[in-house]
Amino acid sequence: MPCLNLSTNVSLEGVDTSAILSEASSTVAKLIGKPEAPAAYGELLSIGGLNPDVNKKLSAAISNILETKLSVSKSRFYLKFYDTKVSKAELL
């Protein structure tokens, strides 16, 4: 599942960004031999509160939303979890 994220400091005012992203996406898919089918990738960062049970529930709920609203199959969705712990230095 290729997922291309692009950032730029170039002004995009008046630029057809969807055409650029479409061309870039098809180029990536072609060169790495992966289908250009609907897919999604997400990252969830939380300071505490995440555990295997919660992660499973979150994955199911978000994949249902993506499947319903964007037609992204549950098998074409990946969610990465980051459970960060608070340290005293972060509280200062």
Short description:
Pfam families: MIF. This protein has helices at 17-32, 52-70, 88-91; strands at 40-47, 77-84. With 92 residues, the protein is an alpha+beta fold.
Task: Report on this structure.
The chain is of the alpha+beta class. The protein has 2 domains: 1-36; 38-91, 2-Layer Sandwich (Macrophage Migration Inhibitory Factor), CATH 3.30.429. The protein is 42% helix and 17% strand. It contains 3 helices and 2 strands. It has helices at residues 17-32, 52-70, 88-91; strands at 40-47, 77-84. Strands 1-2 form a two-stranded parallel ribbon. The longest helix is centred in the middle third of the chain and has 19 residues, at 52-70. The model has no long low-confidence stretch (mean pLDDT 91).
- Envelope shape: extended
Unreliable segments of 5+ consecutive residues? none
Binned strand content: 15-25%
The biggest beta sheet reads:
2 strands, parallel
> What is the end-to-end distance?
40 Å
Question: Total number of β-strand segments?
Answer: 2
CATH topology heading of the largest domain: Macrophage Migration Inhibitory Factor
How many separate domains? 2
Name the helicity range: 40-55%
InterPro entries: Macrophage_inhib_fac (IPR001398), Tautomerase/MIF_sf (IPR014347)
Family: Belongs to the MIF family.
Pfam families: MIF
